[in-house]
Each structure stands twice: as C-alpha cells, then as structure tokens.
From TrEMBL:
Xref: Pfam families: CHMI
Molecular function GO labels: 5-carboxymethyl-2-hydroxymuconate delta-isomerase activity
Signal peptide annotation: none
Lineage: Bacteria, Bacillati, Actinomycetota, Actinomycetes, Kineosporiales
InterPro entries (UniProt xref): 5-COMe_2-OHmuconate_Isoase, Tautomerase/MIF_sf
Protein name as annotated: 5-carboxymethyl-2-hydroxymuconate Delta-isomerase
Domain of life from the UniProt record: Bacteria
Length: 115
C-alpha cells in the first residue's frame, strides 16, 4: 500500500527529478517493508514556485512524505525515514534542503484493488 509523495522546488532539473523518484522507489522496494511491488505507489510533484530563505537562486528543497498503513513500530518508521533521506540526498547538491516525513494512514482509509 505505501504511497510516496516527493515534492521538490522548481529549480531541480528533469534528470535530478527522475533520479530522485526512481532511486527512492527502488530503495523502498528493497527495504523489506513492501509486500508486493505493485503495492508501492510513488509520485513526484514539482512546485511551480518556491522560496527558500531570502530567495537565493541556488537554494531549493526536496520533501518526501511516506504514507503507510498503521502497525509499523516507531523504530521501523524512523528507519524508513532515514533510508529515504539518505537515498534522496545522495545525488543532491549540498545547498538543496531535504526532509522526510513518515505518516500512518487513518483507520478510515479505503482503497480499490484491481481484480
């Protein structure tokens, strides 16, 4: 089920954005926390405008949110956050700010499975 949503600033190139989503998706698949590959849904959203600090042209950001069904321990959620942060920052310039949040979905979550 996990959903990975990566938001990034307008200043990141297409090649960096492509690498971000592919590497993060693969890292989660290899983490042992995804039952079937088709359970993981990843998307990257590039915002049209962003400001970081005093709008320095070299500054931008990447923020990832991982949404999971409830039941994983706080330790496991932290491990996933650390894994994603390491994966996302491996190819980013040092001035790009990066953050990760792991959330549990509400008990009222519903989904449709393909037949």
């Amino acid at each position: 089920m996990p959903h990975l949503i990566i938001e990034c600033g307008a200043r990141l190139s297409a090649s960096v954005r492509d690498r971000l989503i592919r590497d993060a998706h693969q890292a989660l698949l290899e983490s042992g926390q995804v039952r079937k590959p088709t359970d993981l849904k990843s998307r990257l959203v590039q915002v049209e405008q962003d400001l970081v600090g005093q709008d320095s042209p070299e500054l931008t950001f990447v923020h990832a949110e991982l949404r999971l069904l409830a039941g994983r321990s706080a330790e496991t959620r932290q491990e996933l956050a650390d894994l994603l942060l390491k994966t996302l920052t491996q190819d980013l310039a040092p001035e790009v700010q990066a953050s990760v949040e792991v959330r549990e979905l509400a008990a009222t979550y519903a989904k449709r499975q393909p037949s």
